[in-house]
Design goal:
This protein has about 280 residues and is an alpha+beta fold. The chain contains ten helices and twelve strands. A hairpin with a 6-residue loop joins strand 7 (about 150-155) and strand 8 (about 160-175).
């Protein structure tokens, strides 16, 4: 403690040097924080993906459809508890920069497979009864200042035209990392509007299974069921599917580690240089 006064005096002897050093530390810590947030944002959905859910897509690509008739065949496979299906819509709200995921969903089975999405029963029943109804995630509703009863126009990109929806419900995730940005509407409404060659087809299936330990067996059983058919399938656990989706953006983990290493090395240089000057 007897050197405390000497240390304090030396720190403030060169105020500009002191301010620049503290500033370097602050910037470095800020960058570390930003990198941590980015990593969590990309990995969050992967970490919370259901261990008891499988995703079934077309073996060629997720943009290729699957027949609706596959649902009953998958449901009969031992170990399958529930199944639902979705279609990506990809519309635009007001401006192309206003991106949020829009899905045409299977109204009958959505909540059975995704129990983590909480919505009041009266709002859900209003959604079920109205073919033009829609449900928005809490984050998206807050972003655009939507409220129940609003009429939401979405400009179609694939089908064209403006689709209008009655917002009858807002869902919340029961876990911190649950996705609250989605926008749901009736799959049957979409099926009525698509060209004839796409009618009776879905984007992908999500399968809820009884035991997570049976995921590999059930995945193989599903793919074997449709092997050598015009629409072969590729089945993965939801976690593996989410991880593969993130990898399409590049090796995020490597980029974060590389940038973090450069920041840390720069911080060491700044600290070493400051100490050398002080000692001299």
């Amino acid at each position: 403690m007897k050197f405390l006064g000497l240390i304090r005096a030396n720190l403030f002897r060169k105020k500009i040097r002191f301010i620049l050093t503290i500033g370097s530390f602050t910037v470095a810590l800020f960058l570390f924080g930003v990198l941590a947030v980015i990593r969590i944002a990309f990995a969050g959905n992967v970490d919370i993906a259901g261990a008891d859910r499988l995703v079934v897509i077309n073996r060629t690509s997720i943009i290729q459809p699957l027949p609706l008739a596959y649902a009953d065949k998958i449901r009969r496979i031992p170990g399958v508890k529930d199944i639902t299906y979705d279609n990506w819509f990809g519309g635009v709200y007001q401006d192309e920069r206003n991106f949020f995921p829009q899905f045409a969903i299977d109204v009958e089975n959505q909540r059975k497979v995704y129990p983590e999405f909480d919505i009041p029963e009266d709002q859900w029943q209003a959604f079920v009864k109205d073919r033009q109804a829609a449900i928005a995630g809490a984050a998206t509703a807050k972003r655009f200042h939507w409220k129940i009863g609003d009429r939401i126009p979405i400009k179609g990109t694939f089908l064209g035209g403006t689709w209008e929806f009655n917002l009858v419900g807002i869902y919340h995730g029961t876990r911190n990392a649950d996705d609250e940005t989605q926008f749901w509407f009736h799959w049957k409404r979409l099926d009525e509007q698509v060209p004839a060659q796409y009618k009776g087809h879905v984007g992908w299936y999500t399968v809820k299974i009884d035991k997570p330990d049976d995921a590999l067996r059930i995945s193989k059983a599903i793919d074997n069921e449709f092997a050598n058919s015009p629409f072969e399938t590729h089945t993965d656990t939801e976690k593996a599917f989410a991880a593969g989706w993130v990898k399409q953006f590049g090796n995020i983990q490597f980029l974060i580690m590389a940038i973090g290493s450069v920041v840390f090395f720069t911080l060491l240089l700044v600290t070493g240089n400051t100490m050398a000057i002080a000692v001299r």
